[in-house]
Specification:
There is one protein chain. The chain is mostly helical. Among the domains are: 145 residues, PX Domain, CATH 3.30.1520; 186 residues, no CATH class. It is 61% helix and 7% strand. A three-stranded antiparallel beta sheet has the order 1-2-3. The protein has a three-stranded antiparallel beta sheet with strand order 4-6-5, covered by helices on one side. Strand 5 and strand 6 form a beta hairpin. Helix 5 packs across helix 31 and helix 17 packs antiparallel against helix 20. About 13% of the residues have low confidence.
């Protein structure tokens, strides 16, 4: 006999929280799927409600006005169908300042005439998606991130009674994120300068020195009209010493010598072997020698200055200055070319030694060139690269070469020491910012949890922070937290400039580009133009010109705008190239057999592969979806699934051909993995295996290339048709108007021309400062040569000009009677803060009692018979919740491990750090620690900004963990790899699929989320009503 407890489920706070989050996720995907329930449904916005029309916008019915009015009367119904999407759309999309200003002036025609019409045209085209391509499309990635963002937003806003307990308990984890636990002040500077191997794709390659040689050359002279004579002459040439080490044999290090002409030849060969590959540019031949002047290396030159003491604690700076002195001493009197002279002063005479290091700038630039090539796996694994770094290798340089290598290493150390100084200064400013965050939190939340929503909207939130920009006309009058934030921004800008234009291996090339831009930029001409014209107005007129559609009169004219003709022309050129590419691949596949001999076209020929792929591309949706589901179920690559013989396609392929395709597919899988794992050639055996796999995978590579080329051709055909549609041009024109019109009004009063000369002066001083460091390495060491202070002083000198421009722009915006753009943006961002805090602080009675609702539903079902699909299995429900929590904990454990490794400096280098490739690893790891500490102010459970905005730190963490599971799934083998080819074909041949499974996949086609948590799904209708009720109570901010 059932008892009452059989229909009760005592959820813990953790279980209630994750049940709520999963139900929110289901609700979001359900709402998106209502907009696009089938593969090519175009009517989704008609079901979304106002401001969209409930009928075809291109063919409105006769009673259009009545239908629009009836739709407007059904807003409550639409809100119930799409509670989260409609709330986000009406509260954050329609009220975005630029859009709101535009619709206020031009009405709501944007949504129907432009957006809805274009949406339905877009959905009618067969543009490939992530399923088709076998990779994450940009559209899919954006959609996933948007859904994850909405889930995070509403999960932190719509809280349950158990969330307070869950979040308070969760706040104790990740203690390593606390600011100050691991700071760069603790870094052993000797460890920074320790020699390390910087492996990239299995190799550590360093252009470490330069050797000088002599050779006899012959100069041709014309002695007469028909006669020439040659005169022998000895000339000097330089060779770059390259050190190579493999991670497969750490103890083995060898060297090669290469002249610049060898690099030129190598670069040309790479261009021919890898056409279309994005390869780095070979640095220009810089015939520049670096000179170091050491005047006795007096101890007084390496004492603390007042400026130094302000930046770095005495103990750390003493160590830095000691290392600078040691570097200078190591360079003194070791150079191959040294001159000595007398330098007189009023106090004493000191000996001056000059060490000359030829081709130093070119050596560093070539090191950067090689490092960039190593990151291109195809180049790194090519025999051409291997030959370049291994031919004519030797084990030990000469004594003179070793001395040169050591000298140049010390110069590299001087560059690194300045990076440490930047890090120390960054730490100090972050510490000051941390101390001011409490006052900023009070400012945003107005110092009280009981403040009314009206007061929050007008006197607090982010509005109160940015209002200071309008009231304070100088930086000195800003609040301490804003001044601290400006200091952090300055040191970040200064360190970035130092990295790009001084410390980076490509710094000379970057500086050359910067100088040319500065030299040829017409500052005065631009300032004069800006004084009498509005740049935004000019840009708007140009855009109007490009989007103006030419009339089609008497058979003349195209009826297309310049913009349309430009894009359709580009697409036509791309289509011609694709057609040639498809023809070439077709010829390769059609003439292929497993023995490598050509076959005549026939019933069992490989040409049927091409025919079957073509049939798939024009097949009905039901067949396409069935094939995709088979591939998803068995983890197959889509082109392989298309070629199977039981998938609804009429074309059948011979069994022997299929076996050859599967074998080639297996080789392709192994080949790709070896390439991605950066396997290198340490011996001829590895090279032979790699080449054999490459040849074996050739058939499937061509099949996949043909399929992708056909998809690209179909996509470009669809895009060309879209560009020929007038609706797209109208939408582009309207979107540009939305963003340009407000800016035109603001920049009319901005007086931008006043700041152009200031930008010129700043760039001139910056170039002068950087040139000083490039031309004189002595400026990097010694007393009074504080690089950090000089960069900071330059930025401080011009910071008031930048702030004055921002302040004036903000004031001009406030005075705009047609709408305040920047103030509107601040208020719009503030809406997110208000939403996140509304239930927590203003209406705690709206907290959802999810446990009670679940138990009420369980009790209401006690009379349902067993087997009723509506009845919830309590044990299965709790198991599914526990499984969700377990999965999250596993991902969180992996994510926390990554964060902790980064905090300790042991993690992998951040791919977003574009300078990591040229830095010492320990310096990059130190920057990771600094960034982790800086981010802790804004992220995580201890982050003040998290408390300030109401955003829950664990939700942000789980947003960052979204793709960890996908990365693991990609490592799983398909059954095509696991089974012998013939057995695999039998398994696929016996495949059957239920109609229900097909329907499930069709519904999820657009968003690719099929829910296996059947018991949780049974709670979704009840939860949807709860969400709708809470959202209805949230006011319009």
């Amino acid at each position: 006999m059932s008892t009452l407890s059989d229909y009760e489920l005592p959820l813990t706070p953790d279980q209630e929280h994750y049940l709520k989050k999963e139900l929110l996720n289901i609700q979001l995907h359900r709402e998106f799927n209502k907009i696009s329930p089938t593969y090519h449904d175009i009517t989704g916005l008609r079901r979304f409600g106002p401001p969209f029309w409930p009928f075809d916008p291109k063919k409105p019915p006769a009673n259009k006005d009545d239908a629009i009015k009836a739709s407007a009367d059904l807003v409550d119904y639409y809100d119930a169908q799409f509670p989260m999407l409609r709330h986000f759309f009406t509260e954050f999309v329609m009220t975005f300042p630029f859009i709101e200003h535009y619709t206020r002036a031009h009405g709501d025609g944007l949504w129907v005439d432009k957006f809805q019409k274009f949406f339905e045209i877009w959905k009618s085209k067969q543009i490939s998606n992530s399923n088709d391509r076998g990779e994450l499309s940009k559209r899919k990635l954006v959609l996933q991130k948007f859904i994850s963002f909405m889930l995070m937003l509403y999960n932190s806003s719509l809280v349950t009674l158990g969330d307070d307990i869950y979040f308070n308990k969760d706040a104790t984890r990740n203690s390593y994120r606390k600011l100050g636990k691991v700071m760069p002040l603790e870094l052993d500077l000797k460890e920074v300068l320790r020699q390390e191997d910087h492996f990239i794709n299995g190799l550590a390659v360093n252009v470490c020195g330069v050797s000088q040689g002599r050779e006899e050359t012959k100069i041709k002279k014309i002695t007469g009209f028909w006669s020439r004579s040659t005169t022998p002459k000895m000339s000097t040439f330089y060779q770059f010493i390259i050190q190579i080490k493999s991670n497969k044999s750490h103890d083995e290090t060898f060297y090669v010598r290469r002249r610049y002409s060898d690099f030129v030849k190598f670069d040309h060969q790479l261009g021919r072997q890898f056409p279309g590959q994005d390869l780095p540019v070979l640095p220009s031949k810089l015939k520049i020698s670096t000179e170091i002047e050491v005047a006795g290396v007096d101890d007084n030159d390496f004492q603390l200055s007042d400026n130094d003491s302000e930046i770095i604690p005495d103990q750390s700076l003493e160590e830095i200055l000691g290392l600078e002195k040691k570097a200078a001493e190591s360079v003194k009197m070791e150079g191959p070319e040294i001159s000595t002279g007398q330098s007189s002063t009023t106090e004493s005479f000191r000996e001056v030694s000059v060490t000359k290091l030829p081709r130093e700038k070119l050596r560093v630039a070539l090191r950067g060139y090689i490092s960039q090539l190593l990151r291109v796996s195809a180049v790194r694994n090519s025999p051409l690269f291997v030959e370049f770094v291994s031919a004519e290798k030797f084990s030990l340089p000469t004594e003179e070469e070793l001395m040169d290598i050591e000298q140049r290493q010390k110069l590299d150390d001087l560059i690194v020491i300045q990076q440490v100084k930047f890090q120390q200064e960054t730490v100090r400013f972050i510490g000051e910012l941390q101390l001011t965050m409490n006052s900023l939190k009070d400012k945003v939340l107005n110092g009280s949890e009981n403040t009314s929503i009206e007061d929050l909207d007008t006197g607090s939130g982010l509005i109160a922070v940015f209002r200071e920009i309008g009231t304070a006309d100088t930086i000195d009058k800003l609040s301490p937290y804003l001044r601290a934030f400006i200091d952090v921004a300055k040191i970040e800008v200064a360190s970035t400039i130092y990295e790009i234009l001084i410390a980076n291996d490509n710094s000379m090339a970057n500086l050359h580009i910067f100088k040319r831009l500065h030299m040829f930029f017409p500052y005065r001409f631009v300032a004069t133009i800006l004084r009498f014209t509005n740049p935004m107005q000019i840009a708007k007129k140009l855009i109007d010109l490009f989007t103006l559609q030419s009339p089609l009169t008497l058979g003349f004219g195209s009826g297309m705008s310049l913009l349309q003709m430009m894009f359709t022309g580009i697409l036509n050129d791309d289509l011609k190239k694709l057609e040639k590419e498809i023809d070439l691949i077709t010829e390769k596949v059609s003439s292929y057999d497993k023995k490598g001999k050509p076959l005549k076209l026939g019933t069992n020929s490989y040409a049927l592969i091409i025919e079957k792929i073509n049939e798939y591309l024009s097949a009905k949706d039901e067949i396409v979806i069935d094939i995709k589901e088979t591939c998803r179920e068995h983890n197959l690559d889509l082109p392989l699934g298309i070629l199977m013989n039981n998938n609804g396609l009429e074309t059948k392929i011979n069994q022997n051909v299929l076996i050859a395709v599967v074998e080639s597919y297996k080789s392709w899988v192994v080949f790709v993995r070896l390439n991605e794992s950066h396997t290198d050639y340490d011996d001829n055996t590895d090279s032979a295996v790699f080449d054999k796999l490459s040849k074996s995978a050739d058939l499937y590579v061509n099949i996949k290339a043909y399929f992708k080329s056909c998809l690209r051709k179909r996509d470009k055909d669809g895009m060309r048709e879209l560009w020929e549609e007038p609706e797209l041009v109208r939408l582009v024109k309207e979107l540009i108007s939305i963003f340009f019109e407000p800016l035109i009004k603001i920049f009319t009063k901005a007086q931008l021309y006043l700041y152009i000369p200031i930008v010129r002066e700043f760039n001139s001083e910056l170039i002068k400062l950087i040139d000083n460091y490039h031309n004189d390495y002595n400026s990097l060491m010694g007393k009074g040569n504080n690089v950090v202070m000089q960069f900071m002083s330059l930025l401080t000198k011009y910071q008031d000009h930048l702030y004055r421009f921002i302040h004036h722009l903000y004031i001009s915006d406030l005075a705009n009677p047609d709408g305040q753009v920047f103030q509107g943006l601040i208020e719009w961002f503030n809406k997110f803060v208000l939403l996140l805090n509304f239930v927590k602080k203003q209406k705690p009675e709206l907290k959802m009692d999810l446990t009670k609702k679940v138990n009420d539903l369980l009790r209401s079902q006690k009379n349902l018979p067993e087997g009723d699909p509506r009845k919830i299995d309590k044990d299965k429900l709790i198991d599914q919740i526990i499984k969700i929590i377990s999965d999250v904990q596993l991902k969180r454990k992996a994510y926390d491990k990554v964060l902790e490794e980064q905090s300790n400096g042991d993690g992998q280098l951040n791919e977003k750090d574009i300078f990591a490739a040229d830095r010492k690893k320990v310096v990059t790891q130190n920057w990771q620690k600094i960034n982790q500490n800086f981010n802790s102010i804004f992220e995580g459970e201890g982050g003040e900004a998290m408390k300030m905005t109401g955003l829950v730190g664990s939700d942000l963490d789980e947003l960052n963990m979204e793709f960890l599971e996908d990365a693991e799934r990609e490592k799983e083998d398909s059954i095509a790899v696991q089974l012998p080819s013939e057995q695999f074909l039998k398994v696929i041949g016996a495949k059957t699929k239920s109609e229900e499974a097909n329907k499930s996949y069709i519904k999820s086609e657009e968003f690719e989320d099929v829910y296996d948590n059947s018991e949780i799904l049974k709670l979704s209708d009840m939860f949807s009503e709860m969400v709708e009720k809470v959202i209805r109570e949230i006011p319009k901010f």
